[in-house]
Design the sequence.
């Protein structure tokens, strides 16, 4: 579902960066040149087709996966991949890959994540778009994104795309804290200080995104308490209901190209 968005970028630039920083979003000026396309260079240079699509002539099927830290997004995404053949793009994993690869922004991303803050959308969206472009799949789970209205608006502006489905894993804070502290993956943000900061930022920035998609009839709220298998039994019907529709659209497009 690609569409052109022309005026939203002004919304971001008109917000003073200091205000964003107070909200928990890292200042874009700390990431010099990011707007100069140093991330995802090959992607940004690519032309958008006349019909507004850039994805090798295909219409991708995009699912955003929302929920607080430890709500079980990654765990459920693995099950969706196994059962429904999606490609899983975790925003957090892509950012951590930048840290490990010691890229231009790695150190700054590390600081931001340690502080429990949100990395500027320009950086994250370009990493996501680059992965979508290089994938042969057309069904994507975009996990941990958008975490803020700023994230959402930047995605629309940079990719000219809208999600088809938005999943929201609704989980009490005490359950999320317990899961994160037991996660045991050596993450720099899985400690009680950073978790408290992340939960605060999540609460203030995530709700507007949830409301936005709820009003547009795209939101599926999942009760994230229970075993992973129990939770997946709520997730499964969401994708089962869309599966025929997605396959049909895909065959129809291939036929039209033929
Ligand atoms: N339903 C569940 N019940 C108990 N533990 C879970 C459940 N889902 C995930 N976990 C565990 O909780 C931790 C956080 O899950 P994860 O999928 O990484 O969440 P998120 O991506 O939302 O932060 C992981 O250690 C995971 O194995
Ligand atoms: N859209 C995003 C997603 C993640 N990040 C950063 C900030 C987050 O605290 C970290 C970790 O995100 P990740 O989705 O991996 O975290 P959880 O799986 O929810 O625990 O990455 C971001 O800045 N913007
Ligand atoms: Mg995760």
Sequence:
């Amino acid at each position: 579902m690609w569409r052109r968005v022309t005026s939203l970028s002004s919304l971001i630039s008109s917000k003073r960066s200091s205000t964003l920083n107070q909200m928990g979003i890292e200042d874009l000026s700390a990431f010099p040149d990011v707007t100069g396309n140093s991330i995802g260079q090959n992607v940004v240079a690519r032309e958008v087709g006349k019909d507004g699509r850039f994805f090798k002539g295909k219409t991708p099927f995009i699912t955003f996966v929302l929920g607080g830290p430890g709500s079980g997004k990654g765990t459920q995404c693995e099950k969706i991949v196994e059962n429904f053949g999606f490609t899983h793009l975790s925003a957090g994993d892509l950012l951590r890959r930048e840290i490990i690869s010691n890229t231009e922004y790695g150190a700054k991303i590390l600081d931001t994540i340690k502080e429990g803050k949100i990395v500027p959308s320009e950086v994250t969206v370009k990493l996501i778009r680059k992965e979508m472009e290089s994938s042969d799949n057309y069904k994507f789970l975009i996990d941990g994104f958008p975490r803020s209205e700023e994230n959402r608006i930047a995605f629309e502006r940079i990719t000219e795309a809208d999600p088809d489905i938005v999943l929201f894993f609704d989980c009490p804070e005490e359950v999320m804290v317990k899961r994160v502290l037991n996660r045991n993956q050596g993450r720099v943000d899985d400690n009680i200080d950073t978790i408290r900061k992340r939960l605060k930022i999540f609460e203030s920035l995530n709700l507007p995104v949830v409301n936005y998609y709820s009003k547009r009839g795209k939101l599926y709220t999942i009760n994230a308490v229970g075993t992973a298998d129990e939770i997946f039994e709520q997730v499964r019907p969401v994708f089962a209901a869309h599966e025929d529709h997605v396959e049909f659209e895909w065959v129809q497009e291939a036929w039209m190209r033929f």
